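Q: Entry one of two.
A:
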Amino acid sequence: MQDKPSKSRPPFSINEDRPSDWFEPLYSGASEHGDGVPWANMETHPSFAKWLKSNPLSGEGQTALVVGCGMGDDAIELENLGFAVTAFDVAASAIDFCKQRFPDTKVEFLQADLLQDQPDWHSAFDYVLEIFTVQALPPKYESQLIKSISEFVAPEGTLLVVAEVSDEPRDFAKGPPWVLTPDHVSAFVAAGLELVDTTVEAADAHVGQATYVSAFKKGPAGAG
């Protein structure tokens, strides 16, 4: 029988000072069907799919980046929309699953850490997709993560952020996940983006009070 998690620490073995280390053991113990990965949908994320119905995209001649791509389905959705897609995850086993599941794709699946600088990706992507990645890392890294994600967006490019949200203060002892507060929207704006719109969806009771789907734009080169 599994021990009951302590109320003073997350249920997973997570070192707050090595916050990315818990992903590889999780994915290496998972199945190709996503068993063992709590957030694996094995299809386009439902909030992203719903957003696309109201905001059709054509990616012909454009680049896209998927942050924390997991099992790869959202990257494949963007490829199907015509984008040249790069998708990364910190877990090498996640990237292996992506390549196994989609052997014929042209998506560039890469192992990379969002907490490490990626200078080749600065201002490089016309469309950036981030779903549940910021909330999967401890709260003390929120500002760094938001800054890094915002820097990936090319001038006049778009960022879509899907996040579970609660009014409760973020606390390391309460995660994972460390659901965001509504303030994450203004934090992306402070990082140099313009808010286009936010859709608020009802969320499962155990993962916050709502899901926010927020679209941002970056201004033209030299603006601001």
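Q: Entry two of two.
A:
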Amino acid sequence: MSVELNHTIVHSRDNRESAEFLAHVLGLEVGAEWGPFVPVDTSNKVTLDFVSVPAESIVMQHYAFLVSDEEFDAAFDRIEQAGITYYADPHRKQPGEINRHHGGRGLYFMDPAGHGMEIITHPYVIPQH
């Protein structure tokens, strides 16, 4: 068996709110609550398990999702329809813009718990040493 990421726990103020937010933006389904977790499965079989924790214990994390051009267009439309502020850069200096890095398109937005979310249409090209 090869090594694959199976799941990760995402701290949130409200697990259902955060799971439903991300699922809506990405066009995914929210799974059945399992213990303290509200899961969202991605197409590559990685589960994001949202769990409610005290707000003061949440440390911002970054989650990047590789999507097709069609999925990007649909997600971008949902972001705009919901009035979600988006940025071309992770430092949030370019609001209302998308980027065209690495031969594709990308944007950043914040989830309800303050995590930085990113959608990209092409993987980053990282030079090999």
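A: Comment on entry two: The helical segments are 15-26, 69-82. The radius of gyration is 15 Å.
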